[in-house]
């Protein structure tokens, strides 16, 4: 029986637990460790899809972790499962629990895909640092081993190869993650154009890995994809892919270098190209990276591909708005029935919407691609009884054309045409009736998009502008390190503005001038103060303030470690602001409690320990802080009863 098996860290790879067990046991040879874990030396420990998990969990009698939990939280299986049909998935789970797992890879379809696995175990340097802050050690994270995840989905930095060869790990070697195996400094620096899509792709894969998704038939996703291609005019309504347009749109979205990095180059001339095949009825499964890439192409959150009803509704689910401004139900979703016809030339759907409150009928060519489309009028088919009645009244009263137009919320020409059609008497000058009727063009002003995009835009633009006023001689990179959230938002949503409103690159002339340390000290101090003032503003979780972490964010790691004595103001300020491990643990505890309350969960001591990743043996001061906080919470609760 295994007594000292380590407690798993979040997202820890099963192999990592084996390696930690092996290290803690100290004197065992790898073979002996295998025997301890599985009861026999014929077993193997593997990095991605482990076999015989059932034997292992039975031997872990003290900790009650089930085989299902191990598979779900500590192996790479969940990333493959949603793309495997249900019956095959059950077989695979059975063999991960019962057999030694020899044929698992073949049955997942991984072996048949062209995505090559990594040769080394991988790590993110920032996660590593966080682990040391939080736990005093690091471990192999599952997400970093997923093929296609090249950038950390938390830190957005490139994931690196460790020195641990997977080939060795799979052959009876237990290699732990530590400062020696994870100390690769030779990684290339990626340009932002590559980081951005790699980060987004990693986010999708992380979501798939962590959301307990069920297996699906091989053609499940294809149906999703084709409906979306239709919306974009890249497939016909009879499900035929417009291949040339599809490839050119895909290649316009992702550049060749990016596709090569994730082993998913495309080639339109190749009949069996994956980008063609994944849209056809097929009998084979595709690697999760390829699916994630298609999902990324459509720029929708991953969950949309697993939940959204498949039926294609070009104008959404309804009811739809009345867009006649003088209607009592204006801008309300009161139209219950829409009729859809298809345009003969373009084959695009045309929706016709009729309001029962005012008789107004309008149509619009679909599909609606964004929420603002639901405010659009394509053609006015009927003005409706309300409009005509108001027009008669206003004309009869002898009002001016402009006045009537403003009352009816249309342009003057539309008023005139309608009046002609109704044979009304009026004194305005104007077009002949025949000509006016021929044009058949009416303008109803449409509503602005009621979206908060513009308010975000204003907010981030202001932050970015003010930042430049405050730090006038800073480069774009330095500004970015001060407010990464604002930078990323603008980069994604307002790229051109950002380009035009950032400091231009200045080529520094080499100078022999002596450094004015006093001035530099003041500058860095100023920068550091700003950073501390906004600490954790753009992070979900609190992070620890250490000299290293501050220096990294200021982009001044070398300067602060080499010229410490020349920067007295900065250094004394920083020493005042850094947090001890205990300070940080307490900050984390407070954050955990806030989160629990926010989610309406009970605040209990054991929960706080677990969520804050703390052991019972943590410093007395932290223990006290926890008891105190929980005590206060309980008092509050009693008061509310
Ligand atoms: Zn990371
Ligand atoms: Zn209406």
UniProtKB/TrEMBL annotation:
<feature type="domain" description="Transposon Tn7 transposition protein TnsD C-terminal">
    <location>
        <begin position="201"/>
        <end position="574"/>
    </location>
</feature>
<feature type="domain" description="TniQ">
    <location>
        <begin position="5"/>
        <end position="157"/>
    </location>
</feature>
<dbReference type="Pfam" id="PF06527">
    <property type="entry name" value="TniQ"/>
</dbReference>
<protein>
    <submittedName>
        <fullName>Uncharacterized protein</fullName>
    </submittedName>
</protein>
<dbReference type="InterPro" id="IPR009492">
    <property type="entry name" value="TniQ"/>
</dbReference>
<dbReference type="Pfam" id="PF15978">
    <property type="entry name" value="TnsD"/>
</dbReference>
<dbReference type="InterPro" id="IPR032750">
    <property type="entry name" value="TnsD_C"/>
</dbReference>
